[in-house]
Amino acid sequence: WDKDFVDVVVTKKTKHGSKALENVDIIMAQKDDITLETKHLKRNPKVTVIYEVHVPKKLLLRNIKSSNGNITIKDAGKTDIVRTSNGTIKITNCTGKINVNTSNGSITAEDINGSVIAHTSNGRIRLENIDGLTNAVTTNGSIQILNAVNIGTLKTSNGSIKAHIINMSNDVDIKSSNGSITVYLPNDLDANIRAITSNGRIKLHEFPITVSDVTKTKVLGSIGNGGNLLELKTSNSNIHIYDDTKIVF
Fold first, then answer.
1. What are the angstrom distances between the C-alpha of 184 and each of 90, 106, 165, 234?
2. CB count, 10 Å around CB of 67?
């Protein structure tokens, strides 16, 4: 928010009687940094703790972690590390080099003035309007990237990938083991391309590519004047290449 102080509302919940609430302490410490922490006074306290925090936009959110819960950050200025083991993460309208990680949940980031590195083991990733480098890795979920200035690596083992590629100022590596890959490219893009699938087909959908080697499962060639490499690879599905006027997400 626009105010020059931090406001914190902490709610403790339990289904095991009010006495159980004493198993958890809330610690707030302020030196050069402001630290908020949930401290368990016994193992498995069976208490849920919810933080609702308003901070000045000039404050750096350096280390936001939860073991078993969702994290939502909105309009918060510069953001660094965001991590949860069992929950979803959603970040909207922030800045910085954001490293987002969850083991069992989805990740959504929108309207980010900076870069995003997103990693989840069991969930989908959707990144939209990212004004910086974007990397996304998931084991069991889909990946959707829309309107990201730079894309580096997109990888999933069991899910589809859709990506709108605006430019190619660096190599782009997009891979899925068991899912389709769909990319939307501008007609004025300059790049080299290598697309390979083991058990599927490659469909260009009338997108202009100068090919040097082409089969049903492989396309090697260049787009425009050539340039950095766009690599698309999947084992058990199709690869689709469209003009970016035909985006469907």
1. 24, 23, 6, 17
2. 11
Q: What pLDDT is attached to residue 105? A: 93
**What does the alpha-carbon distance between residue 148 and residue 129 come to, in Å, rounded to a whole number?**
5
User: Residue 164: pLDDT above 90?
Assistant: yes
Cα–Cα distance, 54 to 33 (Å, whole number): 15
CA distance 238 to 195: 10
Q: Which residues, including other chains, have CB under 8 Å from residue 249's CB and lie 6 or more apart? A: 144, 146, 162, 164
* Nearest residue to 24 (alpha-carbon basis) of 16, 70, 83, 103: 16
Q: Using the predicted structure, report yes or no on whether residue 188 has a pLDDT greater than 90.
A: yes
Q: Which amino acid is at 37?
A: E
DSSP 224: T
Q: Give the residue from 108, 113, 121 showing the smallest Cα distance to 71.
A: 108
| 3-state SS class at 76 | strand
pLDDT in tens, 12-54: 999 999 999 999 999 999 888 889 999 999 999 999 999 999 9
Q: Which amino acid is at 242?
A: Y
Per 3-state DSSP, the chain is made up of helix, strand and coil in percentages (nearest 5) of 5, 60, 35
Q: What pTM, to 2 d.p., does this model score?
A: 0.91
Q: From 242, 221, 248, 232, select the one nearest 155 (Cα to Cα).
A: 232
The pLDDT tens digits of the residues spanning 110-125 come to: 999 999 999 998 899 9
Q: Which residues contact 69 (CB under 8 A, 6 or more apart)?
A: 48, 50, 84, 86, 87
